[in-house]
Protein 1
Amino acid sequence: MSLFSDPRWSDALGHLPDYLGNHVRVSLAALALGLIMSLPLAIVARHRPVLRGALLGLASIVQTVPGLALLALFYPLLLALAALSLQYLGASFSAFGFLPAVLALALYSMLPVLRNTITGLNGVDPALTEAAQGVGMTPRQSLTMVELPLALPVIMAGIRTSAVWVIGTATLSTPIGQTSLGNYIFAGLQTQNWVLVIFGCVAAAVLALAVDQLLALIETGIRLRSRVRTAIGVLGIAALVIATLAPSFAHSGTRIVVGAKTFTEQYILAALMSQRLQAVGLPATTRQGLGSSVIYDALASGDIDVYIDYSGTLWANQFHRSEILPREQLLTELKTTLAKANITLFGELGFANAYAIVMPRAKAQALGIKTAADLAALSGNMTIAGDYEFFSRPEWAGLKTAYGLSFKTQRTMQPDFMYAAVASGEVDVIAGYTSDGLIAKYDLVVLDDPQHAIPPYDAIMLLAPKRAGDETLRAALQPLLGRIDLPLMREANLRAAGNDATSSPESVARWMWEKIGKK
Amino acid sequence: MTSAPPLIAFQHVSKSFDGRAIKAVDDVSLDVTEGEFLAIVGGSGSGKTTLMRLVNRLIAPNSGKIIIASEDVAQVDPIELRRRIGYVFQSGGLFPHMSIADNIGITPRLLGTPPREIAARVDELLDLVRLDRTQHRDRLPHELSGGQRQRVGVARALAAKPRIVLMDEPFGALDPLTRDALGDDYRALHRGLGLTTIMITHDMTEAILLADRIAVMRSGKLLAEGTPTELSESTDPYVGELLGTPRRQAERLQMLLPKDDAARSSAP
């Protein structure tokens, strides 16, 4: 079958040790932490109805928070804690990646363990707890010798449920900087590489099943008093842990980490930067799929070393500035503002990726629409689609007031689906990106913004405080500055949106470098 | 009755639950002499179980004292107290996840007896309650019949060599034949080991057949106590009612099975 001879499978396989190892580590650490919190709490709460109700209620509420949101919330929380600890204890820790992921997932794992432990313990026949008392057991002995062993099957069922939940949810820790099998899914979703998405899902499912079965083995082993079964189960879990710890010790050195946000262009540019760094012998890795606000903080705190941002995004979202400045002035202002946080604005790449109102060329001509201002009169009957952040961004508010836009409905979409949606007439206009290759592919047109309601979005390269004086790194990345113009970036984006073997961010990045070299 | 000091003495003991006005046990005073087999008889809600559970401090009285071997039990560590008193539970109360040997050896294990000694003691006890050592030692409780389980329950109660054994309707859930055999066997153990036994039962026939002395409880109060003969002279209508059943049974059995009855009474 051609599906399996696709070179993307082997590409995906190449990342497996890293992604799987990180996934196992973060899941098992979260599960262990969850158990350490849940089991004693359940034991304390089982005979206290008020505490029991409060605990189970709290755990249920945590459970209703979407996994992605829970993970995302832990990042700023830990960032604040890290700043406090630096201030008062003189030592800080990384609020990025592993720690927030483990904490959030541990909380997520608590409900099934709490509920099953309480149910299991309270379900022990009262005649037996009385017998335990009668033969002279202390309350603790009764718990460890009688109640816990009898409740074990129910408790283990809870642990297995939470193991499966945690392993599944851990795929969502990619956006907060924890490498996991979610890297396949997020990267695949952004670049429309379904092979990667399927690979990630299958790998996570297989891992969940494997851990579940190992836990089942331990459970039946204990129940049937089979030392062999218990030993196989414990050894299996231990082997997983050891196997995944080995590579992390190997490369915990001074790697340069290149960050990437959650869309195709970022994946390509991150790959391009990594390749340049590797070409001069610097060990570089990429951290992909980071949220827009996570990535800036990660750079500021040194968890990543370099990434590409856009001037308007930083201006409006990071620094909450609402005035619209001319392009050059904005860059100068931004440079000084960034310098206060010890972040280096290394330079512009040469293109801008701005938000813009985009619609099919034919439709625009038919309706006589050239600028956003022309749209105002018609917008009342139109539907607009934007990415996940657009409608909460200040640019949208600016656009609306500048041109008096008021759409019938607004829809939020995965960026790569927007273009197809507007091309097919599913929505009338979209808030697209000027550098997107799909604009040409679907024969769309970008509407002018005569009032400059949307600020400039020059692509700029930012360096972490600790890399400010790194001459080797600067020399390696210098050739990219000012060399990537809008047509090149659009074509690169279009290539990456393809669905074949040459559309991986890595190969598109290599293609880009060839083009840059020829210029 | 007897001039020897009692091993167990209830002195004006009262107990009510959860602040309820109704007393489960209402001002009961009762002596149990060393070596005696006392049955406490009464219907459900009579307070007989509560009275017995006060002995090893599974519950504490609201007022009054319980003295064991001249010691007020309120002054004794309850855990230590329970380990020196054997307890046979209704329908066994065996721990389903432990082997028969582990069930029997539990109290010695709690007392820190070396495993080798416990193993030897378990074998001795299996012999004592007439269970085959090799066949039963390593099995789980659910693999045994009800009667066998109750024999294990008795063995467990005797494991730490107690002077006192408390039994909570021990034979209630067994079929009549098993019940009879087990009762006789226990009676022999009681005598042979010099135990002092308190047994709860709602069955007057069983009480008469096994016990030296019977205490009758009703609504928390001790209504009457004495040997079967003494009780039969009681003028209390409830005691009379309780004795009515075994009397009728005896008459009817004698009428229907004279030969069998004769054979039985001539047995040793």
Note: Chain B has a mean pLDDT of 88.
Protein 2
Amino acid sequence: MTTATTSPTAARVDAARAEGRAALVGYLPVGFPDVETAVAAARTIVEAGVDVVELGLPYSDPVMDGPVIQAAVERALAGGVRVKDTLRTVEAVAATGVPVLVMTYWNPVLRYGVDAFARDLAAAGGAGLITPDLIPDEAGEWLTASDAHGLDRVFLVAPSSTTERLALTARASRGFVYAASTMGVTGVRTSVDAQARRLVEDTRRAGAERVCVGLGVSTPEQAAEVAGYADGVIVGSVLVRALLEAPTPAAGLARLGRVAEGLAAGVRGGAA
Amino acid sequence: MTSPPPGGFAAAAGAGPYFGDFGGRFVPEALIAALDELEAAYEKARHDPEFAAELARLHRTYTGRPSIITEVPRFARHCGNARVLLKREDLNHTGSHKINNVLGQALLTKRIGKTRVIAETGAGQHGVATATAAALFDLECVVYMGEEDTRRQALNVARMRLLGAEVVPVRTGSRTLKDAINEALRDWVTNVATTNYVFGTVAGPHPFPAMVRDFQRIIGEEARAQVLEITGALPDVVAACVGGGSNAIGIFHAFLDDPVRLVGLEAGGEGVATGRHAATITGGAPGVLHGARSYLLQDADGQTIESHSISAGLDYPGVGPEHAWLASTGRVEYRPVTDAAAMEAFLLLSRTEGIIPAIESAHALAGAIELGREAADAGRRDTILVNLSGRGDKDVATAARWFGLLDEGEL
């Protein structure tokens, strides 16, 4: 079910499409390097031209994440970040007016209570969830809760997905379908896998109205290339790395802003 | 106990993906195709007499099955004078029950046509078994092992390397088994086209819990017939240690629909009340970890809590979903055994019977001491079958430290 009219994320992707470009989706983990700086970081990427913010809920066992995001999340958890901090961060970032999706592994939501989490996320102004270790087949409770609270549900497809599974995932998703560009985990890569283009085409053919591509997109050139065939470009590790490698939080925010501006120019057809 | 399901517990346990409310596939979409492929290959293999014959031949000529039963009367005197029988999985090639599963999965890997296997390991037993099978079947082998465990079990690291495997120390998170599984899953997502994940226990996403159980069921099938032959009756109690739970499921399954008490002994570490333990069913709560819904040690936010046990093989904050179901139905009881109680049983079996058990298996022995004494207090003399899942060679250094067996200069 893709109820475009009620999905803020879909509306935002459509607005970018109306401008003749792909949307830029930017990932940052909650609580890294601390809760306040993470909020400032999200505002920074919004100002730089990110259309949709994806906030990562820090989790102890992030099996879909590579070394950069693992390192950031470990530091966030060591700093004492809690699930409630994610909801507070959602509220602060949603105030900028962009749709805010939470990227979360499933156990923290299960522990919170699926319906309770959906209720509190909606109350905080969140747009929905991206669920890297929840497939539609196991998502019964979440399908119900996301309908009840009007939330987007972004499921993933991969180059290994069969046609049947692409159709199943497209049907279950709302907002967009997240196409993993390559077989692997999150990270900065020198090139975006050529199979990403085919996956986007196959996913559309399977019924998806909006397909965004993530995993490994890290330069304006790559963003421009992916923007040529996808509805949105998802970037994460390259943003996190800007914060991770900076000597101070202020320097990190400055570097983050420049990186995000470059990627925003990339999806707009230019490489700054 | 709730009343047995129609058709009995063994039938109700079935072939997955769910065991009651537990099990399933909570993994990235990228892995679904590989899990489907594995499931289909396994479905075909388990109905193929050739596959069964090949596995049986390996059991007989390579592993040394059937493993024997040893009655241990001198040890049993400390168990309220119960009758205690050990199922000697420690005598298998590579020294534990792990080989039963690995040979099955290595044969499947060949059938699927993949050339590389990966595995996680805690104590090193599953890693050694996988490295062994990889050598036998000419497969490239990478074993992920928490850095903390590579220190605790250095001898097994050397064994795996001798066998030609690459051992990757994992330096993320708690640097133990849970993080080794995370890293193996990341490898698998990346290299799934060439690689089969030889999972070591009855946890993880479907089809692993059902498939690994089926490869371990031979333990209970043999033991049930052996005990009947030796004693003329079924045992009163079957005891096994539970980390992920593969040796326990393996011995329990043949008895699920018998009037036999089944007891799983979890690693109680420094005591469940201290919070420093690995007793997942006793001290955990339902949730999702490593691909399945089961019990796990977690905090109020659903973050995994690090487990603690003197036994690296039981030092895991999760447990197989079928155990979660068996616990919820009441068919199997789960009890914690502290490090101290396990080490006492470890020493006792060594001194009374000349058998040095794995510290993992010593938890089951400690359970037998407790259960035998409880029976004696109730005026019974029970027959207790204990799964001696592994041998203790790998644990000698740990034991030497625990008991102070070596002088400063000898360490």
Note: The two ends of chain A are 37 Å apart (CA to CA).
